[in-house]
């Protein structure tokens, strides 16, 4: 799908949006994305300067489905008004215009993403980690109150502004993969996918909590989870499960005879073997040992340990994490 030309002014209900440039992102977008300058009307006050504009074409079914789903997510009570989600400014349907895409959304512009910020052991980083956890967990609580889950938590979808200042902002963006809890299988990015989802279960509320912790862990130690170093795409599931098994040795992966889906039979068998035999994976230490080898405050280790429980029935809810002594203690630490 082609992008809007630089300088094109997209008319919105609230404001107009002058297209400036394409935004590359992490190259997983199913829509076109641009940075735009907001052109206010005469009665506008306190107008932000920039906007993030996403467009989808009606001949691109997946992109349009995701964009429509994102719009529907903002209709859920509490989403549009919450400070933990990126603000939605406008929904623009250009079906009657000679435009490249048929539908656009104009959203709040934030300066960068967690994926673009390098983890460094210092107080500013720990403040950022608390902001990220707080925003992501609060977003979970809001979605869970409507029995929905976000299946796309990842560093690239944690949006940030004010890095290097005392006014850091962290928000959750890209709500195109928000679904009713328990209705979607084989979802979540590999590095953030919960153990139970790998084993064929639907993505539910506990799966979100795992994904948020995994997002933070993968930011702190890139590549510790997921498939960036997988030798072949056909073994991505097994490779990812083997990494979880290395980090959490007590995690029981079922035998092939205990699962019904043929692809999963193959994946679980290979995952167990890889976790014992592949040299690159043997370098992965159990979570506790791995965290001790990384410079970070004990409070952050405690939160990751609290959230990354392989048994979803024993994993705390997002609201429980926010109310925990571990999280409150970490907040107190970064506020000193």
Write up this protein.
One of its GO terms (molecular function) is ATP binding. This protein has helices at residues 61-75, 123-144, 195-198, 205-220, 236-247, 262-277, 279-282, 287-292, 298-307, 318-323, 325-335; strands at 9-11, 16-22, 32-39, 50-56, 88-93, 103-108, 112-113, 148-150, 158-161, 169-172, 178-180. The longest helix is centred in the middle third of the chain and has 22 residues, at 123-144. The strands form three sheets. Strands 1-2-3-4-6-5 form a six-stranded antiparallel sheet, with helices on one face. The chain has a three-stranded antiparallel sheet with strand order 7-9-10. It folds into two domains: 9-108, Phosphorylase Kinase, domain 1 (2-Layer Sandwich); 112-335, Transferase(Phosphotransferase), domain 1. 38% of the residues are buried. It is globular and about 65 Å long. It is α+β, with helices and mostly antiparallel strands and 336 residues long. The chain is built from eleven helices and eleven strands. 36% of the residues lie in helices and 16% in strands. The mean pLDDT is 94.
State the gist of this model.
This is Kinase-like domain-containing protein. The chain has 336 residues and is of the alpha+beta class. Helices cover 36% and strands 16% of the residues.
